[in-house]
Amino acid sequence: MRVGILTSGGDAPGMNAAVRAAVRRGWELGLETVGIRRGYAGLIEGDLSPLTPRDVGGIIEYGGTFLHTARCPAFLTEEGRRRALETIEREGLDALIVIGGEGSLQGARWLSDQGVNVVGIPASIDNDIEGTELAIGVDTAVNTVVWALNRIRDTALAHERVFLVEVMGRESGYIALMGGLAGGAELVLVPEVKVTLEEVAQRVSALYRKGKHHSIVVVAEGVTAKLGSVEVIANFLRERTNLEVRVTVLGHLQRGGSPTATDRILASRFGALAAEDVKAERFGHMVAWRKGKAVRVPLAAVRRKQMAIDLRLYELVHQLAI
Ligand code: ADP
Ligand code: F6P
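Above: inputs. Below: predicted complex with 6-O-phosphono-beta-D-fructofuranose.
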């Protein structure tokens, strides 16, 4: 069997480890794996080449994706989709392994609906994919946020300042909450929980009245659509509290870096399982992580999580910030 493999959407640390595992496990099972460059763009353009176990050597420790990735608006058009299906036909691909976030997995679902044999692997730092407790890249991104918060706390303490730290996550507050909890943040603002600017100012002021001399507020990017940009929040805090406020936007540094052991292990298990599923001709699902086990979830059930955070942990952050 000839299997195409691609990474799509926002890159996530551990994508390389997943490709490595799928290629090597597939090789042992007698599959021929072909790497498709730049996600669905490479599928449309026919940009592919065979991968052997040696081709995926030395990549387990690297973030990014050696296959490259892309957001591909053309794949949402009829013309793009037709060309993608033509590539699959022309190249004799018997199956596809799609590694990516919720959008990429919707693409996988569409291909599956057209009769293509597909297995999806969830990979996105946002952890917003319904059906899996964890996606590849999440653990590394959360650890990166903690690394950053440790450094910000040093200077926040030294200057007795309030820091607003904006983190990624699209509409999900997962990175903000887990990073904030592990980094000892005083306050986290997530899109899943509605708060007003006035409440934010009151909470920060209350902390200072209790004797704190600094505070770190982790702001999920999804909140800024509702409350205003992080600069707007900062200005409001300055006015209301008279405190010195600084802003740090962590941005794309959260997407890079060597994957943590957790991400490498998850990616290795997912990649190997996807190859095993191809060999067994089990298709139309995403491999997923639930209750400590790798499981399968139908692609038809994959959507963006409405509630990506545990509200008890949201409470806990604030219970501990006294
Ligand atoms: P991610 O996979 O990280 O969530 P995107 O949402 O940008 O990233 O999706 C990556 C690509 O997947 C898109 O550029 C598009 O080509 C494809 N895609 C996204 N949503 C859909 C959809 N609803 N149906 C088909 N393909 C989609
Ligand atoms: O989906 C991953 C993610 O990093 C989001 O957290 C963020 O909103 C978005 O991608 C940024 O996209 P881009 O890299 O295209 O700027």
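The CA atoms of residues 139 and 263 lie 6 Å apart.
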